[in-house]
Amino acid sequence: MRVIVVGAGVIGVSIAEALTHRGADVAVLDMRGPGRGASQASAGMLTPYSEAEGSSPLLDLCTRSLALYDAFIARLLDVSRGSIEYARTGSLDVALDDDGVAKLLGTKVALDTTGVESEWLDENAVRQFEPSLTPAAHGGLLTLDHGLVGAESLVNALVHQARLAGATFEFPIESLSIEQLGESVEVRALDRTWSGDAVVVATGSWSRRVKIAGVPALPVRPVRGQLLHLQWCEGDLPGRIIWGPHCYAVPWSDGTLLVGATAEDVGFDEGTTVAGVNALTSGVIDMLPHASGARIESVRVGLRPALADELPAIGPFTSAPRIVAATGHYRCGVLLAPLTAELVVNYLLDGRHDPAFVATTPDRFARN
Ligand code: GLY
Question: Is the per-residue pLDDT at 78 higher than 80?
């Protein structure tokens, strides 16, 4: 089977790698290059219980995908020569006041009910456990299953593995239109046409610009996220991801910390702003006081691809079943990459419609 994957973010390259692993012939097209959209700014958090509401379709998708992560990374480690940073060191949600404590204790009850392992640390215990925290911390909820992955190294390893297995990558390719013609598909750019048996639309925030014949444009909108990349200079880095009321902080083995993130409706503006940096610096200093002595290495920006219900669009269009959506992953692209690849590959190569397609079908926007 020949599949054209449009979009080389973490979702597109995960699908390309999984398809080539199963013997498909894959061409990947992108307007910039692998991982140059939202993936380049991702903090790489694998934290479903902090990202998604209890008993929601999003939480189901995120926990299913997290369960695939060990095997997903293990398969890539040979080719990446161990260069993918991946750790399942848990995450700590921190309360800085009594309302925060009440909220986290509510989360703890919900996690207990569903059998998710977590631990409540009161104000003394939390400061002992994580000495980099502010003395004003009122308590913290440790979620043990959570983890992190270096998004850039992950994308590089996926591209490398897919290329070794025969995938081709072409960029910059812009102005795409897609059409199913009987048993085949055509993808057209300004002066080029690609033919195949199926196409996957993994174009993230730019999905609305892809014209699919007979199908309304996918109403994905960009939500800007600014992040600080800090070099830690004083005291110990936190030992795991810390979520506070105004930001999160992700520590890396090279002694840096990623602090995120703003969520701004500013269209396709990928600029950084004083207000964004100010919100993140004050948020992280409130939580981790030694952040005030850290050096700012860079300010990163990514456009998260959001759909109105904040669920991704994954699955075929009913009216054009050889065209498959894999976009709109909003805050959870890196986390949802292994599951998205598995669902798309199982559909394309085995004809399996995963039950998750009921919630993620791209047809849900045509109904409204
Ligand atoms: N997943 C974290 C963020 O989107 O900021």
Answer: no
